[in-house]
UniProtKB/TrEMBL annotation:
It comes from the Eukaryota. Pfam families: CUB (PF00431), Ldl_recept_a (PF00057). The lineage of its organism: Eukaryota, Metazoa, Chordata, Craniata, Vertebrata. The keyword Transferase does not apply. Keywords: Disulfide bond. This is CUB domain-containing protein.
Length: 148
């Protein structure tokens, strides 16, 4: 994928049914703020926005669609230029999805596996802290009052 200067572009990427898409930026340099690239999960302007990119830093990670379509939309004004951007995409099955954990394990949001007992035990075990993220508060202050 390559953009020519001062040219907006809309690319809709399609993979086979049942596959998803991995988008990888090789080079990214557009005029900060004025030019931007939107990456959406799915096809069309109402699909979920995954990233808005501008300036000279592309996304920190590759982007993965959840379905078999992804949209890349490049907006530019008429002044100021960057090099543009180059990206490639790969389609496959469950790209970017972490391997599932064993039955007795808890899967952290970022994919790591910890022992199932580690979930909501008050100690952070996942590198991302997700094992303690959605826990009911089980501790609290107990006030005991005694009448004389
Ligand atoms: Ca824990």
């Amino acid at each position: 994928m390559q953009t020519s200067r001062q040219r907006d572009g809309l690319w809709t990427l399609h993979a086979l049914q049942g596959q998803n898409i991995q988008l990888h930026f090789l080079d990214f340099d557009v005029e900060a703020t004025y030019d931007m690239v939107e990456v959406r999960d799915g096809a069309g302007p109402n699909s979920t926005l995954m990233a808005v990119l501008t300036g000279s830093t592309g996304p920190a990670h590759d982007l993965f669609s959840t379905s078999n379509q992804m949209t890349v939309w490049f907006f530019t004004d008429s002044g100021g230029y960057g090099r543009g951007f180059r990206a490639n995409f790969t389609s496959g099955v469950d790209l970017g999805s972490p391997a599932p954990c064993a039955a007795a394990q808890f899967q952290c949001q970022m994919g790591a596996c910890i022992h199932g007992n580690g979930q909501c035990d008050g100690v952070v075990n996942c590198p991302d802290g997700s094992d303690e993220a959605d826990c009911e508060m089980s501790s609290g202050v107990v006030i005991v009052a005694q009448s004389p």
